[in-house]
Task: inverse folding
């Protein structure tokens, strides 16, 4: 079975640019999560979708971060405009969405903002 | 609110040492408890999952017991190998699928 696919694996952006990260969840999974991972802050939830509806939007990230789920098999995370402090690994995960299932993670996108 | 605590930021061992990584949780529900392992350059992978109190999860030589009394889910392995070097995350999943992660513990195993 295909796992969670994230593209690109690496992204380099100039400060002020707009970047779009992509995620394809596991087929049939209803829940999709976007996380930011840094050594200092660990895993931080950016967005949580259930059946394409936004359930939770990480408060601290609302102004420049926008996640969308265009259909059940594709999601994007837009960062606009990027800042150097956005340099991190961005992880996408999906789960079936039924009672207490463990999410499956993608390999992540490593973003460097210069 | 719910939370997961991993107090050890880094654990350094030699091959064949015993591993113990501390994890405690706080919740008013009956969650599923998880351990993830993250190797360098990869996303977190599910290592263990336990859904019922007092049950033990076992995988690849690692084990953890869901202890409702002490609200703990410590990770143990009898004999670590250099290939076990990674970051280990404890997590809990509520019945409504909200997930709470610990800060992670970096395991370094020296040959």
Result:
């Amino acid at each position: 079975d295909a796992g969670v696919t994230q593209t690109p694996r690496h992204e380099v952006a100039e400060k002020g640019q707009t970047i779009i990260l992509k995620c394809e969840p596991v087929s049939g999974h209803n829940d999709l999560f976007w996380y930011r991972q840094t050594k200092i802050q660990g895993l931080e939830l950016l967005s949580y979708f259930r059946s394409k509806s936004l359930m939770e939007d990480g408060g601290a990230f609302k102004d420049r971060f926008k996640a969308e789920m265009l259909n059940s098999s594709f999601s994007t995370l837009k960062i606009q405009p990027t800042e150097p402090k956005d340099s991190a690994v961005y992880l996408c995960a999906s789960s079936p969405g039924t009672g207490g299932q463990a999410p499956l993670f993608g390999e992540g996108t490593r973003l460097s903002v210069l | 609110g719910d939370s997961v605590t991993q107090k050890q930021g880094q654990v350094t061992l030699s091959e064949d040492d015993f591993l113990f990584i501390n994890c405690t949780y706080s919740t008013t529900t009956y969650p599923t408890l998880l351990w993830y392992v993250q190797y360098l350059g990869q996303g977190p992978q599910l290592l263990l999952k336990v859904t019922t109190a007092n049950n033990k999860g076992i995988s690849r030589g690692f084990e953890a017991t869901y202890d409702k009394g002490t609200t703990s889910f410590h990770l143990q392995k009898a004999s670590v190998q250099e290939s076990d070097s990674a970051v280990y995350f404890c997590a809990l999943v509520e019945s409504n699928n909200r997930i709470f992660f610990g800060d992670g513990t970096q395991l370094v195993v020296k040959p």
Observations:
- Chain B touches chain A at residues 31-32, 34, 36, 41-46, 49, 51, 89, 91, 93-95, 97-99, 101-104 (CB under 8 Å).
- The two ends of chain B are 41 Å apart (CA to CA).
